[in-house]
Amino acid sequence: MPKLLGEFLTVNSAMDGPLPMDESNHFGAQPGPRRRRARASRARLLEFLVINRQSPVTVVDQVATAIEHLIVTGGLKSGDLLPSTRELARTLDIGRATALSVIARLSAEGFVETRVGSGSRVRARSADLLTASAAPAPSSLKRSQVPGAVAIQQQVALLDTLPKHVSRSTSLMDLQGLSVATPFAPGMPAIDQFPYHTWSDFCAKSWKHATAAMLETRDPAGYRPLREALAGYLASARGVRCTADQVIIVSGAQHAFDLTLRVLTQPGDRVLIEDPGFLGARNAMLSAGLNLRGVPLDEEGVMVPDDNGGAKLLYTTPSHQYPMGRTMSLARRRALLEWARRTSCFIFEDDYSSEFRYDGKPLPSLQGSDEYSRVIYAGTFNKIMFPSLRLGYLVVPEELVDVFLSIRTWSDGCPPGVIQAAMLQFIERGAFYSHIRRLREIYAARHSLLCELISERMGLMLSVVSDPAGLNLAAVAKRPIDDVALSRRARNANIVCPPLSQYFVQAEPQRGFQFGFASSNEAQMRAAIDRLEVVWGQGASTAT
């Protein structure tokens, strides 16, 4: 879609493809199918043409460009009858002269043909223009000629360059059926503690007072009142320095990272990730055809690379490193930011569970210390509220806002406006902060309990290494074990504890497991530990 359309069309995506038929649009005698389709086409076209009166683009250009787009994308077919100029003027509330100018422009550019007494129809030649540069028929193509086939083959081949311990069979563990009811499920919040009634009240009020802006989602950055509230919340809670204009509403941290890759990288570019690091980020990089390199950790967090080798982006989780659970030191944060300035590399800060720290106050975000506009910051409500909410946020440097929004406009839409409005009320009325405070107390107790259970029941095999924060903890093996095989045994018993070795890219993998504690209460944890002892048995001492 031309950039121009984004300035005034609010629901034009629904018109992509052939216009739907509507056989209820008639009076009196039943017209024939062709006449019914023509009437429906005109009605649907008028329904989706929306003019932005504040746009600097003239009304003639807005309407004409919108109709051209529908013709090019197949929304209007050859021979389709356009609304009359009187119908256009009346429905769009424009002058008859303006409507005549729209048709005159379309006719001059070869998109429509006008005949006295027959109206204006889409010209057959304009449809032919669409197929002039079409690809050959599939039967005549070799596999290497299929658009995108070579790139896809290269992306798949990248998986074969990874070490054996991160092959497809182990790095993409079978998590079908994973839910909050699955013991030790990583990243799962306590759904049993969610304030359903409060949230449903806000959702009901959001629907009751829904505005056209909420339902149309005109702004690709998301519902502005929510972005304004987020800018204030992030400043006070995480030390993030931004305005509402820098906040983009997304469906979660994974979506934020995917959008960032689309903006900042091209296939073949070098990108860096913590080693060990988050599988979702690693798989997104590989899927984008990027040249992935791991950066090892030490006690202070991800190490500062000596040379970025032309890397475009570094992915990091400084508040609670995934999967090891350590917090990046202030000194390392400063050194990493200076490295990013020196090498012109961007840093993607995934602040996925920063609200939950159980020993002292959390350190401010990395973005809050960034003086060079090198940090892209992402967070999510899904880990606080519930996973299917699909609501998160991205904070980008001012210089990159326009390009992020441009790419976002063509790649996807915002989460539902009414849900964003309900989230705004949840924050402004204080329910959000009350919920976080309550969860901190519950998660702190559950974290402490799981640490005790691992120490008491598995202390000869495992040692907890994570800081008291987040929704998960890491426990490393004290002696050689096959953590992949043991993890599969646990999965067969409906317990999820992913092997730590699968998170390593190039560094020598540590053996151990990741345990989620947020979604399991005391009884569930104790029962799961009992089952693990039975399932693992002597397998816990299997050497690799």
UniProtKB/TrEMBL annotation:
SMART domains: HTH_GNTR. It comes from the Bacteria. Keywords: DNA-binding, Pyridoxal phosphate, Transcription, Transcription regulation. Residues 57-125 form the HTH gntR-type domain. Pfam families: Aminotran_1_2, GntR. Gene3D superfamilies: Type I PLP-dependent aspartate aminotransferase-like (Major domain) (3.40.640.10), Winged helix-like DNA-binding domain superfamily/Winged helix DNA-binding domain (1.10.10.10). One of its GO terms (molecular function) is pyridoxal phosphate binding. In the C-terminal section; belongs to the class-I pyridoxal-phosphate-dependent aminotransferase family. This is HTH-type transcriptional regulatory protein GabR. It comes from Variovorax paradoxus.
